[in-house]
Amino acid sequence: xxxxxxxxxxxxxxxxxxxxxxxxxxxxxxxxxxxxxxxxxxxxxxxxxxxxxxxxxxxxxxxxxxxxxxxxxxxxxxxxxxxxxxxxxxxxxxxxxxxxxxxxxxxxxxxxxxxxxxxxxxxxxxxxxxxxxxxxxxxxxxxxxxxxxxxxxxxxxxxxxxxxxxxxxxxxxxxxxxxxxxxxxxxxxxxxxxxxxxxxxxxxxxxxxxxxxxxxxxxxxxxxxxxxxxxxxxx
Length: 235
Fold this sequence. Notes:
By secondary structure, the protein is α/β, with parallel strands linked by helices. The chain has helices spanning 3-14, 30-44, 56-64, 102-110, 142-151, 185-193, and strands spanning 23-26, 50-53, 78-83, 87-88, 94-95, 112-120, 133-137, 155-158, 160-161, 164-165, 173-178, 198-201, 203-204, 210-215, 218-223.
């Protein structure tokens, strides 16, 4: 089964977490886009929800599908957020931000009662770190932050788009930080959070409620109670 079919299958499985009347966090990225489209179909069929998007792209997509959108000025808490991830481990620690929306994604996840992570089989890993950790940084501090992260043992690259530095929805740059195997994700997340000049980083620790990973026609459901994973080659 192709990654696209797995992404759609995981997105479809996530819809059971959405109830009529919910405020729904709408994630960013290719997998989350499937969920947004499927929610759009449900809205057209009569489902009553309001969405808070995690990126300008998701806002445009949701608006085009007729999903009513609100902001945090109209809601104090989100009932459920559906979003993707670049990597998920057995503790539901995540690396996110490959699409550049990590800041808004973390704000939305932090304000959610439930965070449902969806992905294809390639997103499930034994140990985080094959995918680089995105770090959103203010331009003034960029050289200092780069040196600080390199001192932690990472190889750091400024993310580019069309030959220029990538710019986030909030106007910042992203450093993609290659740490390799991350033996202690909470410790790395704390260290990055303590670094002045970092706006936000792509280590999402303790935020996901459940992960739905499609492997072929099977949906693997992981919760915070899950401690072990079947063996997977790679990281």
